[in-house]
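User: I'm writing a tutorial on reading structure tokens. Could you give me a worked example: one chain, its sequence, then its tokens, then a sentence or two explaining what the tokens reveal?
Assistant: Sure. Here is the example chain.
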Amino acid sequence: MADRIYQDWETKLKSLLDSVEKELKEVRAQKEALFCLNTDVQNKVEGRLIHDDRRLILSAPEIVIGNVNMGGTLDPAGGCTIIIRGNNIAVEGVGDAGSVAVRAPMISQTAENPGIDGKEHTVEGVSQVIIQSREVSIDSNDIPAGGAFLDARGVGGGSGVALYADKRMSLSAVSSKKSLTARLEEKINSLKDIKNALKEEAKDDLDKFKEQSKELSKINDDRDKLRLKDEDELTSIYNDIDELNNLINELSPQLAEEVYRQSKTLGELAELNRQEKFFKKMKEEVGKTSDDDFKKKPVQSSMSIQSESLNIMNADGDGNLRTDEGSGVTILSNRMKVEGVFDDKGSLDKGNRLTVNMKTIDLSTAGRQGVQKEDDGTLKAAKLPAEGDVIITSKNITMQTINAEVADKKYKDTGLAEDGSVTIRSKRIGLSNINTTDVEADDKGKVTKATYKPEGEILLFSKQVQISSMESKLDGDKVEETALAKDSVFSVRAEKMSLSAADHEGKAAGQATINAKQVTVSAMNVDPKTKKFKEMAQGGSIEAYAEKQTVVAKKDLAIHGEETAQLTSTKKLLVNGKETTEVKQDDKNLLTLSGGNTDLSGGKVTISGDTTVKALTSPLVSADKLEVKSAFKSSNISDGVFVGTKDTSTASSKIEMKKEAADVNKEALDGGAATEKNQGDALGNMAGDAVSNVLGIALEVGFKKPGEEKKS
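And here are its predicted structure tokens:
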């Protein structure tokens, strides 16, 4: 009989051991079988069982449960464990001032199913923790071991939720892959080590239990054999039977305790196996998603903070704003949206305002490559390439560096900041008043078709405006210009352009200067692709008006008129070439003045009008025909004067007219000043004056005698 009882214990323990790697349903069935052992067997477990099938009530003004003395003081030896296990447990503090206080060095609340033996950690569909109160306060204090807590600070001012922490507070609503995988691997390895050790322990304990149960069964068998002897022999062996009964009464509870202890161990082992299988499957499911897919696919995690008024401050418990290196607000997000309130018509509410007021505001879309950090997380080295876009869309945009003040509750602009500046630095800067119409976009929002038309105006008000393409270098606090940027271009393109330095009354003032190695002012059509000059614009014209105009060319000054070129002056026209003045036509010189010498040439040259030729010297004049209508004078006519006659006979004469020559030379000297004056009278007179600079005249002519016809 006894052998069968102990064998039943052993069988149920072995069945539980064999089921520890099976499904949870089978494990629970084996646990239940152990629990349902014969009550007599359960009663052998050390301790006292008080049980009622209906209800058990402990009633007193004060109830203390624990290993305590009559004063309610816990046994200093410790070792007191209190377990309340049930399907529904309620702890109620009744009355207006009713309270429930839970104190312990470590308090854990986990919404999970512990199982009938308390060894399970099974999450159920209803797993949740609910804290409902008029006032909720969670206060974390950085108190050293052996210290004491102050009273919780509470919400203050009535109902609400207060979260306090002296050091750190973390609010997270996240899903993960890499970190979750790492945590799962760590948990699986930990479970595996504990499970393997516990499994070996369970096998050894079961083997010991078998030995103990065999020993106890043998004692029971020995006692039963003694009882089967003849009655006349029983008297002599009563002492032996009593001794065996005492031994059974001593060992049987120990064996029952071992069953109880091993059932706990096997329950824990079964739970470790269940968790290991669950976490392995979870790891397998997580591993089905690649890192890239995890980054791209939404994980549905979210956090919501709602309030009529929301304040975020870097302040300490005394209200001091912290300005140390570690203080600040950091937001890491792939997308961030700040949006105002819309009215029922879809317009932004008039009270919408976003205000950012900081000593330095850094708005960046820089990338981060090759990042190196110190042990404390400080950025040591990185490449920060500019990328991305910054888009500001508004009806009115103002950028200003001004001083201001508030007086009588009114905001007032008090002037430009002393050293204020606005700098825009970019490889390419576009400033546009382009309006967009006829817009078409694809299903992804990309514009595929549109019409762009410049509208509006750009106003620039400043005392000084400078546009520069200069290279420079910085040496200490001194900036020095080094060179003009190669291939730099300043281009203005518009239907109408106006550059004015007129004052408020319309009077021209100041000056406009264009300075370049090559300056081109044109009214030309251009090639739409190459942007190079193509042809003269029909009806194009360039006009310059001024009281005084000066054009200076160190080497060449070219004026081209495709049909007409005019140089006119109401008073005086000056043409002054420091070395040479040339008048050309078809690449041939018509008039050249150089070093006091004049060369007049052409296919047909006509000098008309009242013309005086005076000379200081006697150069050679060569002509096909020379006609003198009023007078011909010469102080000295050398041999070689040829006069053609009808009979072709030759004649020569030598006439000395020294006095007349002297008079002519004197008259030429006296007329020098008049000749200079005549240079500016007219373009036609300029040619005559140029001829008058000839210093001597030598004539080889054919002419007629008085009364004779002119001969060839």
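What the tokens reveal: The first strand starts at residue 135 and ends at 140. Residues 440 and 446 are 9 Å apart (CA to CA).
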